[in-house]
Amino acid sequence: MIKRILSTVNALPINITTNAWNKIIEINETQKPFSFLFSATSGGCNGFNYQFKLLNKTQYDKIYNTRSNKIKPTIIKKQNSTILIDPMSEFLLIGTTIDYINEDFSNGIFENKFIFSPDKTLANSCGCGISFTPK
Predict the structure, then answer these.
(1) Which listed CATH number (1.10.260.40, 2.40.240.10, 2.60.300.12, 3.30.428.10) goes with 11-134?
(2) How far is residue 79's CA from residue 16's CA, in Å, rounded to a whole number?
């Protein structure tokens, strides 16, 4: 359950597919990061960019402990893997789905990568899949 200042929400703010979780868990087992950070930064061809990066324990503590007690980052866990959603970006990321696709030359997919898809009722995205504009 996610608790915010004015309401309680029973749903997660983002969706993570099974393929994405499998890759996150694999990265966690091989790279040994402490956590992942999912956030939005200004820029890109559509106003905001998705950012998904690895955090070590020091970086995680800095983000988690420098926020006020009322607005802590949302934390999503599966097995030994953790995703931290930046609280300053969370309202922009609500409804976003994180997926992971594997290369499939027969279908024109030439690289393995995480892809981010916004909820179409909340945001528009461009063709690159890295930037978006809230509605």
Answers:
(1) 2.60.300.12
(2) 14
Buried b (16+ CB within 10 A) or exposed e, 48-83: bbbeeeebeeebbeebeeeeeeeeebbebeeeebbb
Report the predicted TM-score, pTM, of the whole model to 2 decimal places. Answer: 0.83
Q: Could you list the pLDDT tens digit for every one of the 135 residues in the chain?
A: 444 454 555 578 999 999 999 999 999 999 888 999 999 999 878 789 999 999 999 999 888 887 666 678 899 999 999 999 998 899 999 999 999 998 888 888 788 999 999 998 998 887 776 788 888
